[in-house]
Amino acid sequence: MVNNQDLNDKRILVVDDEPDILETLEELLEDTFVVDPASSFEEAVSFLKNNTYDVAILDIMGVRGYDLLEATHTLGIPSLMLTAHALSPDNLKKSIELGADAYIPKDKMVDISLYVEDVLLSRQDKRKNNFKWYTKLRPLFDDFFGEGWKDPEKQFWDAFDKKHLEPQ
To answer: Do the domain assignments include residue 159?
Structure first.
């Protein structure tokens, strides 16, 4: 759980087409944050038009997550991509290129408040992208994607690692 007083009552838009995922995310976040759950692209767009958000958590599949990411990025809302079915090197790279502040596998959502905290504190400290999440999850990506997963986009990942990977 997030303990930083500066983060209390921040408003989060959570978008996922799976009701059980939305419910779980609400339960994980509601003690610290104000959570608006949306189960569709249209509902999320309505929330974005009518509210101000400190962060968004977006599913990739089923809710047009990349379209929502472009919208939140345009609005200056830090966004975390949360995925199970779209967990791939291509989707990880695309999320980063489109401005995602984090890319979190759904099986790691139990720690979602920690990832939200990292993103919010980095923005608070005027750092647009803080990729602590990548340092934490890189071993998982290496295991899940397999040896050589970065090879097809070696130049991109070498530059990314050099700029963002925290020393272990």
So the answer is: no
User: Whole domain around residue 15: which residue ranges?
Assistant: 5-131
pLDDT tens string 42-86: 999 999 999 999 999 999 888 899 999 999 999 999 999 998 877
> Domain containing 75 — which CATH number?
3.40.50.2300
pTM of the model: 0.88
Burial class (CB in 10 A: 0-12, 13-18, 19+), 105: middle
Is residue 143 included in any domain, yes or no? no
Position of tokens 């609005």?
A: 75
- Our CA angle for 157, 159, 162, nearest 5°, is 105
Residue 104 domain-assigned (yes or no): yes
Name the nearest CA neighbour of 71 among 91, 41, 26.
Answer: 41
Structure confidence by residue, pLDDT tens digits, 5-41: 567 789 999 999 999 999 999 999 999 999 999 999 9
Across the chain, which distance is largest between two alpha carbons, in Å? 45
Please name the residues in contact with 71: beta carbons below 8 A apart, sequence gap of 6 or more. 45, 48
